Amino acid sequence: MTTANNDNRSAAAAAGDALARPAEPGVPAPGTAGRVPRGALAGWRPDALDIGIVVVVLAVIVAGALTTRFFSLANARAILASSAWVGITAIGATVVMIAGSAVSLAVSQTATVAAMIFFETQQLGLLLAIVLTLLAGVAITALQGAVIGYWAANPIVLTIAAGFAIDGVAIWISGGTTVYPKVTAFNGLNATPLGLPLAVYVLLGLTVGAEWFLRRTTAGRQMYLLGENPAAARAAGLPVARVTVSAWAFFGACIALTGIFLAAFNTIANSSVGGTLSLDAIAAVLVGGTAIGGGKGSALRTLGGAVLISAISDLLLLRGFSTGIQLLVKGILVLLVVIAVHVRSARGRR
Amino acid sequence: MIRRLPYRPEILIPVVALGVMVVAFLCTPLFNGHALSSFDLFNTFQGLTQLGLLTLGLGLTMVAGEFDLSVVGTYALGGMIAVRTGQSLPFLGVLAAVAAGAAIGAVQGGLIARLRISSLVVTLATYIALLGATSAMSGGLDVTYTNSAATLWLDRPVAVIFSVPSLITLVAFAIAAVIFGGTRLGREIRAVGGDRRASRVAGVRVDRTLVGLFTASGTLAGLGGALFSYSYATANPNPGFQPLILATVGCLVGGVSLAGGRGLPAGLLAGALSVALLRQIDAVTAIPDYFTELLYAALLGIIVAIDAPGLRRGLDRLRAHALTTRLRDRHQ
User: Fold this and answer.
1) Which of B55, B195, B290 to mutate to test the interface with A (most CBs of A within 10 A)?
2) pLDDT for B70 beyond 60
3) B316 contacts in A (CB within 8 Å)?
4) Is A12 on the interface with B (CB under 8 A)?
5) Distance in angstroms (rounded) separating the CA atoms of residues A198 and A172
6) What is the pLDDT of residue B5?
7) Cα–Cα–Cα angle for A246, B241, A166, nearest 5°?
8) Is B162 helix (H, G, I), strand (E, B) or coil?
9) Which of A7, A108, B125, B318 has the fewest CB atoms within 10 Å, measured from its CB?
10) Angstrom distance (rounded) from CA A195 to CA A76
């Protein structure tokens, strides 16, 4: 087949990202172009998804009540702390997903590199180290965003490749060794004001900030439009590539922030610091009900998703289930929520 | 500004890629000073087994315009199931792995076709779940396959350069080639990937085709995982994304486009063989691991960027611009 074929493609596919489009190419969903995403509670009508989420939350509460130590202050703190790391990254991932670039699978590696850079630059002073790490995260991630935004490259495959490249470069430069900080000023980041880790406050601040940005600013509204209907966004004269790159740049800052907190918590930085951050962040965003195709979602819901997943993992851990089972439950939960979100939005279209 | 290309990319790309890799392979004695032997070729075909089935499964879904991210999860699960259930009866283990792969693929295909939901998100969620299931089955540790008789039998050379697994891989490609070349189904797969709405209108059984394709990719991934873990006498609960990267490179080098609608099993075989040759070259020249990792990543990144519709659109625009400038100049 020839290039001629590609020009027949649907609006969504033509704007890039042939895979994250709605499953039916060539059928621009009628009436969705101008639809404004509603506020979290405005016009709220319970449906299968909401009922499902309530059932899951109730199940967690009941199972929690039957599990010793689940409802304790220390455990609540642990849940919030573990959701903070994933949550900070997930807020960035939410913005990228809303803007229609689906997901990144290079998150773990980027966070690992951020942690290493953070420790390598410690002797320059804490503030400068943080700034440099954030800049590095922004640069690495915005570069991927540029390829996606300007060339409409497939985000999944591109970020898988980028993750491997970042990993390779990190091992090349560091020689595969663990990075130990020379100065311990970073310990301030492990502070727990009012009994909660600093990262939790950062997550809350970031969530509120991102939610405000998405709902109240022009740039935020542009991201919804771009995700909802890329062809319409292009036709409306939106700087599509620039909007995409800025979403990814914000994502990069969030990942770097997570890397900084992970480094401070672990007090060392090695290749396993990032762990399963990529998948955890994606899970939090999707469980929060953000649509993978873009155009719908909110930072607040992602916060809910992150806390819910954290609570479920914690519950399974307390009941003695392995990390494998935790991952299995996470995957199934994501699948169910994704199906529910899709069915709901499909019904809304008809 | 659309100009028909004078060649068919699904043939040209794999032929060029395979040609380059064969030449590079023949040049390896220049780097390491060892003459090539039939054993190098045997190893290449062993490498083909590891990623050929995965490439074929992934490639089939890509031709139909989908992307089955879960193949790497099914691959891990298949290996684990085979090792767990096939300690005394290897065939039973393979059968269990294949059945699990087919079931996983069929369920995913059903969801994607019936609900018309993006394959990306379904297979991503399934991948997470499969990773968890595999890890839960093994306690997160490698599991050893103790039936060394089976391992030896599988790794025994057949006709000097082949082995039973590599022959199975080649047979799978041959079956796919027959289906693509000679049946209605093959044309339908490409139609589904090219323009799904048009093919639905034209009476193509889109849903059934998709379910069949995902069942096939799950089956192939399960089989690939089983053969690999038998051959290495161990099952790894988390192989990471490397098999997926290699398979994706194999598909794209094999002339398949991420946009769908393009690709042939023969091209996929050439793509997988190119990657197998590349791996064999980097094995005999002893390049450090991180460097190979970087090499594959760079390769995939470059191919994806080239495959991106935006880049082509930009080039088309440039060409159109040049043409209009030329026309204007002529008129003046």
Assistant:
1) B290
2) yes
3) 3
4) no
5) 33
6) 52
7) 45
8) strand
9) B318
10) 11
A147 interface with B at CB cutoff 8 Å = yes
Cβ-based contacts of A26 with chain B (< 8 Å): 195-198
Q: Answer whether A3 touches B (CB < 8 Å).
A: yes
Cβ of A324 within 8 Å of Cβ of B242? The answer is no
Nearest to B139 among A283, A322, A346 (CB): A322
Task: Tell me the per-residue pLDDT of B147-205, one tens digit each, with 9 for 90 and over.
Answer: 888 888 888 888 788 888 899 999 999 999 999 888 888 888 888 888 888 888 888 88
Helix (H) or strand (E) holding A74: helix A73-98
Report the pLDDT value the prediction gives residue A350, as an integer from 0 to 100. Answer: 43
Please tell me the distance from the alpha carbon of residue A17 to that of residue A303, in angstroms, as a whole number. 26
Per-range mean pLDDT, top range of A152-156, A269-273, B47-51, B93-97: B93-97
- B174 CA to chain A: closest CA distance, Å? 22
Taking chain A (350 residues) in consecutive chunks of 10 residues, what is each chunk's mean pLDDT?
37 38 41 47 62 82 82 86 92 94 90 92 89 96 92 88 89 82 78 84 94 92 91 89 94 95 87 84 90 87 92 88 89 90 68
CA nearest to A344, candidates A309, A297, A307: A297
| E strand residue ranges, chain B | 143-144, 234-235
Which pLDDT value is given to residue A187?
77
Tokens of A51: 């009922």
Distance CA B44, CA B276 (A): 6
Buried b / exposed e across B63-80, counting CB within 10 Å, b at 16+?
bbbbbbbbbbbbbbbbbb
Question: Do the Cβ atoms of A18 and B126 come within 8 Å?
Answer: no
B135 and B238 Cβ atoms separated by less than 8 Å:
yes
For residue A15, give both structure tokens: 């704007």
Q: What is the pLDDT of residues B24-46, one digit of tens each?
A: 888 888 877 777 788 888 888 88
Among B167, B151, B170, which Cα is nearest to B159's? Answer: B167
Among residues B270, B311, B267, B276, which one has the least CA distance to residue B296? Answer: B276
In residues, how long is chain A? 350
Q: Does A18 touch chain B (CB under 8 A)?
A: yes
Contacts of A25 in chain B (CB under 8 A): 65, 195-197
DSSP state letter for A30:
T
Contact A184, A192 (CB under 8 A): no
Answer whether A169 touches B (CB < 8 Å).
yes
Residues of B in contact with A320 (CB under 8 A): none
Interchain contact, B258 vs A343, CB within 8 Å: no
> Which residues on neighbouring strands pair with residue B234, listed in sequence order?
B144
- Residues whose CB falls within 8 Å of the CB of residue B182, separated by 6 or more in sequence, listed in order: none
Q: What is the pTM of this model?
A: 0.85
CA dist., res. B136 & res. B110, Å (int) = 26
* Confidence band of B330 (pLDDT split at 50, 70, 90): confident
Task: Tell me, rounded to whole angstroms, the distance of Cα B74 from its chain centroid.
Answer: 13
Report ipTM for this prediction.
0.85
CB contact under 8 A, A160 and B241: yes
In this complex, which of A16, A24, A161 lies closest to B300 when CB atoms are compared?
A161
Cβ distance A3 to B5 less than 8 Å, yes or no, reads: yes
